[in-house]
Design brief:
binds zinc ion; alpha/beta; 501 residues; Leucine Aminopeptidase, subunit E, domain 1; binds manganese (II) ion; single chain; 7-stranded mixed sheet; 2 domains; 15 helices; elongated; binds ligand BES
């Protein structure tokens, strides 16, 4: 997580370990993006470096050039932003990815300065966001502490945008820190980040904000009738936790609830996964991590909206008292569910948390979960799915994601969902057909969303992020390998949109 600063220092004079200068690809080949403010001798040196090294300006291309004449920084990092079409402004996501690639590549240097690539405020804002998101390195658990440290301080030079405000920097720094914490939580090993520990971390992180936290332990969950979470947790030697985080500022405009799936390890339970299928299952708490970190960011930014985050935390293990296929459990509120496959555990913990969230009738409920393998099959590793009981909210979530570079795609809940989920022994079964598994999983969740005072269902959207929560491939742009922190930015952007209505 990096500290962000704005400075009016000339790019040639800034004292930093490296100076990042963006390149854009034009019909005349790669050129330095406007507004770098470098002296002529530096520019001609960089132009010949571009020629000699056959640079393209493509997104992701980062080239280190030492000893540029008349530049104080010992190193210039040329970072490609991809094509610029005519005179139209650069796509903010290109800027984020390009500058994120640069700060990621420059890990190990404490202080990096950046020339924003364009003269419009949205370019500066995207530069701040990308730089903050790229300045991340995994905190490993190696016994020799030789991990390379992320860039600590990023100075964004206001070369061409003198009027740009510090509020963009503040927001990017807060959101960058929240995304970094989310990535750390997702990357944490499952023997360390247990449900109990997760609840402790969240409690500690809220200190210094006005967020209140309440933690229900196993005893409280039994008293409260949370049979979904307790059933999933039954085979684990760790306890379950249901954490509620509340941000209730004075003069709040509206209210929204976020609900996250927090399975700290998903073995599948008695319906055990294969070893390969289990490998990434320490990341099955990415939804809860996104909720926790989004609420923290919202609290630090003091957004004028009431936000409550619910984290449904449990470990899904096949211990001697594990739940069985055929078991019937009662969800918070009393409705009963027949367990078909113990590996469909996410929807069970979410059902309890959605029922609880509904009790305070917020204006909208958004849940987020690494819920189904079918999500990855449908949309691949980089795009999340949004399913909803309300098309307007669904569109709002897609737009919030688009505004920050988290791609989300709307999908439908089938009309036969409720009928398909009928059970012969309980009110519901928790699974429909395998084909369209993501859609029927959402159909199951929809059953536990309560009604508003008007008598119609509370507007609800479900984000299935099984794919984009984890980057199994190499790092790219501002996205590291491993936990991506996906969802944090969409939830913060959504809260901002609600607050601005
Ligand atoms: N956590 C998994 C979903 C998952 C799979 C996330 C792969 C990320 C990568 C979830 O609990 C699960 O096991 N889902 C099953 C549901 C099935 C048993 C109905 C699945 O998708 O196969
Ligand atoms: Mn599972
Ligand atoms: Zn799972």
């Amino acid at each position: 997580m990096a500290e962000l600063r704005l400075s009016d220092t000339a790019s040639a004079d800034v004292e930093a370990g490296a100076l990042v200068v963006p390149l854009v690809r034009t019909s005349d080949g790669p050129v330095l993006a406007s507004g770098h403010g470098l002296p002529r001798s530096a520019v001609s040196h960089l132009r010949s470096a571009i020629d000699t090294l056959h640079l393209t300006g493509d997104l992701g291309e980062v080239t280190l050039v030492p000893g540029v004449p008349r530049v104080m920084a010992p190193l210039v990092a040329l970072t490609g932003l991809g094509a610029r079409r005519g005179r139209s402004p650069l796509d903010p996501e290109q800027v984020r990815l390009g500058l994120g690639a640069a700060t990621r590549r420059l890990a190990g240097r404490d202080h990096v300065a950046i020339c924003p690539p364009s003269d419009d405020p949205s370019g500066l804002r995207a530069a701040l966001e990308g730089a903050a998101l790229g300045a991340y390195a995994t905190t490993g658990y190696r016994s020799r502490h030789d991990d390379i440290r992320a860039v600590q301080t990023v100075t964004v030079l206001r070369c061409a945008t003198p009027e740009a405000s510090g509020s963009h920097a503040r927001r990017a720094e807060v959101v960058g820190a929240a995304v970094a914490l989310c990535r750390d939580l997702v990357n944490d090993p499952p023997n360390i980040l247990t449900p109990e520990r997760f609840a402790e971390v969240v409690t500690t992180e809220t200190r210094g904000t006005r967020t209140t936290v309440s933690v229900l332990d196993d005893q409280a969950l039994r008293t409260g009738g949370f049979g979904g979470i307790l059933g999933v947790s039954a085979g684990s030697s760790h306890g379950a936790r249901l954490v509620t985080m509340s941000h209730r500022p004075r003069g709040a405009r509206g209210s929204i609830a976020f609900v996250g799936k927090g399975i700290t390890f998903d073995s599948g339970g008695l319906c055990l996964k294969t070893p390969a299928g289990m490998l990434a299952m320490k990341t099955d708490m990415a939804g809860a991590a996104a909720v926790a970190c989004a609420v923290l960011a919202i609290a630090h930014l003091r957004l004028p909206i009431e936000v409550t985050g619910y984290l449904a935390l449990a470990e899904n293990m096949p211990g001697a008292s594990a739940q069985r296929p055929g078991d019937v459990v009662a969800i918070r509120g009393g409705r009963t569910v027949e367990i078909v496959d113990t590996d469909a555990e996410g929807r069970m913990v979410l059902a309890d948390a959605l029922a609880l969230a509904s009790e305070s009738t917020p204006e909208a409920i958004v849940d987020i979960a690494t819920l189904t393998g079918a999500q990855i099959t449908a949309l691949g590793p980089r795009i999340g799915a949004v399913l909803a009981n309300d098309e307007q909210l669904q569109a709002e979530v897609v737009a919030a994601g688009h505004s920050c570079g988290e791609r989300l795609w709307p999908l439908p809940i089938p009309d036969d969902s409720a009928a398909t989920l009928r059970s012969t022994v309980a009110d519901l079964r928790h699974m429909g057909p395998t084909d369209g598994g993501m859609l029927y999983a959402a159909g199951f969740l929809r059953e536990f969303v309560g009604t508003a005072a008007t008598g119609s269902p509370i507007p609800w959207a479900h984000l299935d992020i099984a794919g984009p929560a984890l980057n199994r491939d190499d790092a790219y742009g501002y996205v590291p390998k491993g936990g991506t922190g996906y969802g944090v930015r969409t939830l913060v952007a959504l809260a901002e949109r609600f607050a601005a209505r």
